[in-house]
Amino acid sequence: MHQIIIIGSGPAGLTAGIYAARAGLEPVLFASSVSPGGELMNTTEVENFPGFPEGIQGPELMEKIQSQAERFGTKVEYADVSELDLDGDVKRVTTADGNVHEAKTVIFATGSAYRKLGIADEERLSGHGVSWCATCDGFFFREKTIAVIGGGDSAMEEATFLTRFASKVYVIHRRDSLKASKIMQQRAFDNEKIEFIWNAEVTAIHGETEATGVRLNDTVTGEERDLDLDGVFIAIGNDPRTHLVHGKLDLTEDGTIAVEGRTSKTSIPGVFAAGDVIDASYRQAITAAGSGTVAALDAEHYLAALEDN
Ligand code: NAP
Questions:
Q1: Is this prediction's pTM over 0.90?
Q2: Pocket lining for ligand 1, CB < 6 angstroms
Q3: Is 209 left (phi over 0), alpha (psi -120 to 50) or beta?
Q4: Which atom belonging to ligand 1 lies closest to the Cα atom of 153?
């Protein structure tokens, strides 16, 4: 039986790995078989992670954090967790291949998933001109006209990045002011290829087999109009990825996993949570890494108390 199983390979999970491994707990970390490394794998330049004054590419940062975790003995397994049995002293983690892994503690750091607009067309045209990932798909929109939906840092980052390829990038936002940080806003405002469409809600995405445009509803006047586009990038935030623990761990009103105060302790002893999955407010790589640290230390103390009993 393992001392610690960590689920998730973003900054939270891997930092928990660094701390748990350095504490001699030989953690096993399950990373997604398809998209390990978490959200930073879809990011370009990370400018605000301390220690990298010139900035660092998201995937390179994740590679460095992973090799740091592995250097101290974290065993990274690329397998998707399909089921969890968290009650009792022995926690059971089942992976998609049917294998069951047992541990005394589990750190849950599954991050968050792209939020959807909730309109029928977005699923239908997903991968056909509708995307949630500029770094993955931006390349296909060379000299095209595209739109980014959203008003936060993600939308500004995606829009700015997409101007490398597209000839024109609209930012469609449902209000008349942005949620994004000042520096990201200014960068987008200063970019000649970016045009803002304010107070606009996307009510439909047009196109039979490929996205050809959107229908916009003016939230002030109620007027509707169509906008021709070659592509639509949706960047309206993320939701915590909690489907594996529904009905098992207590959740907050925001849908994140509930933890005790500033700790990582969930509603089940021996189960800890860290990163975006517990955080509806900050959601930064560095706060996730800090949260992973807290979870590893909490797990370490829990295991030490088990030994004492
Ligand atoms: P966010 O800050 O929650 O912003 C989401 C944006 O999408 C908001 O402007 C929101 O509008 C809009 N929105 C939400 N639901 C919508 C819907 N159904 N239809 C239309 N618009 C909708 O999410 P985020 O931009 O992904 O950022 C999340 C966190 O990651 C933040 O803490 C951010 O600072 C961080 N982040 C940082 C960086 C960076 O520092 N380089 C880069 C990316 C993300 P309202 O404004 O009207 O609510």
A1: no
A2: 48, 115, 117, 149-155, 157, 174-175, 179, 236-238, 282-283
A3: alpha
A4: 25
